[in-house]
């Protein structure tokens, strides 16, 4: 255990949107236990994770004597100036957070998003990471719910005029 440490490794400074290629029925927003919108899914498959979303990068991670041990997030990408798995773990984490709250995507689709985003940065061991989430990801859906201590809520987005 670590004292006086942040529970999350990253906090998103601004909205991040990405086209997943998975069309969904309707347009949805997902809110956390405070009512803050954290995830938006568009009919086209565009995924938006909202500003101030916080996550721990690639899981699992544990803190031992003020040292963070666990799955590495990769080297810093020369284009994004973030670890190579930054956006992949962001989108994957947000999707997993709301899987049990009516997310109109399946776990395999969330895992495919992880793989595609890691491929976009050229992350070399992406297939190893992807295989690990395919095998063990279901364990993290439950762990995620416990760590965040919440149930999210799903809301239809208002139709645009």
Summarize the structure.
The protein is α+β, with helices and mostly antiparallel strands. The chain has helices at 86-97, 107-120, 126-148, and strands at residues 10-11, 16-19, 28-31, 37-41, 46-49, 54-55, 61-64, 67-70, 153-156. A 5-stranded antiparallel beta sheet has the order 2-5-4-3-9, with helices on one face. It has a two-stranded antiparallel sheet with strand order 1-6.
Kindly list the characteristics that best describe this protein.
alpha+beta; two-stranded antiparallel sheet; 9 strands; globular
Give an account of the 3D structure:
The chain has 161 residues and is of the alpha+beta class. It has one domain (10-156). The protein is 30% helix and 20% strand. The protein is built from three helices and nine strands, in the order E-E-E-E-E-E-E-E-H-H-H-E. Strands 2-5-4-3-9 form a five-stranded antiparallel β-sheet, covered by helices on one side. Strand 7 and strand 8 form a beta hairpin. Helix 1 packs antiparallel against helix 2 (107-120). 30% of the residues are buried. The model has no long low-confidence stretch (mean pLDDT 92).
